[in-house]
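Private note to self, pasted from the team thread so I don't lose it. Backbone tokens:
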């Protein structure tokens, strides 16, 4: 069972001021408060300043997001950190962009599926936001008058759509996403980062069911003695209870995340 982080900071003292410590974090709901639409999200200057300090003080800072890598960098606005976008299908490092080579063959199919859903007569229209992220396509239904009804209708259309059957369909906080059936989940990305960078100590922060794979992998690698890792979940009423059981600690808000960053940056 997860504990409230600020009642157990002593358990993270081993990470504080250790140059080998690595911070990996999601963006929306973790570094920025959940916004009505993706373009309204904001990373506050105080959060950005603390991330700069963490980057300067510790081994690695990585941002792991469902946003495109370029959009993640634009939103966070901190140079010198690793941006992993579209759930691992692309990443930016030192100004260079990398795309999973298997992805390109599915790009037209992803767009075709999104276009077909959008034109479907039973697809909800009011409040639905369609987001083309280049590699993936996101359907946001947070602003729908009846979000759960919209959610079920969109999934039903996808289920019956031939051009979507070979694609990957995932869900997050009031979002359905169409992806190529290749690439990595956040847990596989976590392990890849560990192996390629000889990581030893990791703190991972997230807020969504898309972070579940990362939390699970972190615990698995820790239990095997491969790394020392701790997962921190930003809780909300939009995530399943089981996700809280998969982490070591929880916090209540993005403001708590900022408070933690200030703590880990302090002497």
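Design output:
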């Amino acid at each position: 069972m997860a504990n409230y982080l600020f009642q157990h900071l002593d358990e993270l003292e081993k990470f504080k001021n250790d140059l080998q410590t690595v911070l990996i974090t999601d963006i929306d709901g973790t570094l920025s408060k959940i916004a009505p639409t993706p373009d309204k999200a904001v990373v506050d200057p105080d959060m950005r300043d603390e991330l700069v300090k963490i980057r300067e003080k510790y081994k690695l800072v990585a941002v792991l997001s469902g946003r495109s890598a370029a959009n993640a960098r634009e939103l966070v606005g901190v140079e010198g950190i690793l941006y992993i976008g579209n759930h691992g299908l692309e990443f930016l490092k030192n100004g260079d962009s990398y795309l999973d080579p298997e992805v390109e063959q599915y790009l037209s199919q992803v767009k075709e599926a999104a276009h077909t859903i959008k034109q479907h007569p039973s697809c909800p229209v009011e409040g639905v936001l369609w987001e083309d992220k280049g590699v993936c396509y996101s359907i946001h239904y947070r602003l729908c008058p009846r979000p759960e009804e919209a959610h079920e209708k969109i999934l039903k259309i996808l289920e019956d759509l031939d051009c979507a059957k070979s694609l990957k369909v995932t869900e997050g906080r009031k979002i359905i996403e169409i992806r190529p059936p290749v690439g990595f989940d956040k847990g596989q990305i976590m392990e890849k980062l560990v192996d390629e960078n000889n990581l030893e100590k990791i703190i991972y922060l997230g807020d969504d069911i898309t972070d579940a794979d990362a939390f699970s992998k972190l615990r698995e690698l820790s239990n095997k003695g491969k790394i020392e890792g701790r997962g921190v979940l930003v809780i909300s009423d939009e995530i399943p209870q089981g996700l809280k059981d998969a982490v070591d600690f929880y916090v209540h808000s993005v403001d708590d995340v900022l408070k933690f960053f200030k703590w880990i940056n302090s002497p």
